[in-house]
DNA sequence: CCAATCGGTAAGTTGTAACTTACCGTTCGT
DNA sequence: ACGAACGGTAAGTTACAACTTACCGATTGG
């Protein structure tokens, strides 16, 4: 089915668990198990989400003994932010013209 | 499955067809059939997306003969925008502190 | 070493959202 | 009044993403 393609920023942050992980990592870096404790999902599920976030460049990971610490990647975050902003710019340009026209009526 | 709940802004704009519709309506109001012509999906599919967008307060519709013209609802759009911004604010607060700390190292 | 901790991966399930086709009511022009 | 255009809705399918459990390798401490 899938009409268009590409795991863009919307698809990445479209998942609530992923957003929770991002917010969590924004406060401080965490190991996988720590994240799982704070979320209502299993550790493997967290692992899979982290994979998506890492592929998207949103997080970096670092081995620390048997643990693996994940942290937000500032560059990735701001890139994603920019990507989403583009949608609003495209949408709101042209749109404000319409609003102005209608407010005359 | 679904861990959290609520058709929030992310779920609404998470769908590419819906984003395309919003961008389309941002340029100018359109009838359902017109939208369907510009999109690679059927007219009923468009109708269903419009329902979601209308329930979310993102679009308004107006009967015009046998046709029904949809247009973006400015208030809804800006409300949605604000909702998404809240995520970034929550995320980026606390996060910039971390970035600053790391840039010292 | 051995046991324990930690995390990634494989495999399988399952709910759901995005579509389709088919149908029906409404509006309008002639 | 009839046919055509238009759009909403019902019903069914289907692809997929988000989970789960089970397993396995790697690291570490005693």
TrEMBL record, chains A, B:
Domain HTH arsR-type: 1-92
SUPFAM superfamilies in the record: Winged helix' DNA-binding domain (SSF46785)
InterPro entries: ArsR-like_HTH, HTH_ArsR_DNA-bd_dom, HTH_MetalResp_TranReg, WH-like_DNA-bd_sf, WH_DNA-bd_sf
Keyword Flavoprotein set for record: no
Domain of life: Bacteria
Pfam assignment, any one: HTH_5
Sorted UniProt keywords: DNA-binding, Transcription, Transcription regulation
Designated name of the protein: Metalloregulator ArsR/SmtB family transcription factor
